[in-house]
Amino acid sequence: MKTLLIVYHTMTGGTRQMAEAAAAAAREQSGVTVRLQLADETQPDDVLAADGYLFATPENLAAMSGLMKDFFDRSYYAALDRVNGRPYAVMICAGSDGQNALRQIDRIATGWRLKAVAEGVIVCTHAQTPERILAPKTIGADDLARCAELGAGLAAGIALGIF
User: Where is the Flavodoxin-like domain (predicted)?
Assistant: First the structure.
């Protein structure tokens, strides 16, 4: 049985909704176990035990969240040269554009020599005031469907050995 590890961080619930949608759809695929884990609870051994990855983070100050960066900091060297070629994808819950957060994760994945198998999914909430930025988020059905499609596709590709 193959394993898809979904690592996420959330502050206002948006990224959690995206990760849960991806995980639910991924679990519908046969031949793959899905592990949905918070970034601050994910250890290097979790990374090493997985066959593919979905990384999900909010955009904070035009970057990935600090706890997502902490996950990569704690896991990077332990996994270096031990996860080469494994597939990954990224989801960003953004207030503005999310591109820099996506670039940051892609750059880390390049260092790990992971294989990008889908374009990153960026959901923009357009939260631009302190009140809206800090408010709980509700991700719309269309965006959750995009996240589910990414999760299902990634899981199916891992299970079938396509990636």
Answer: 4-163
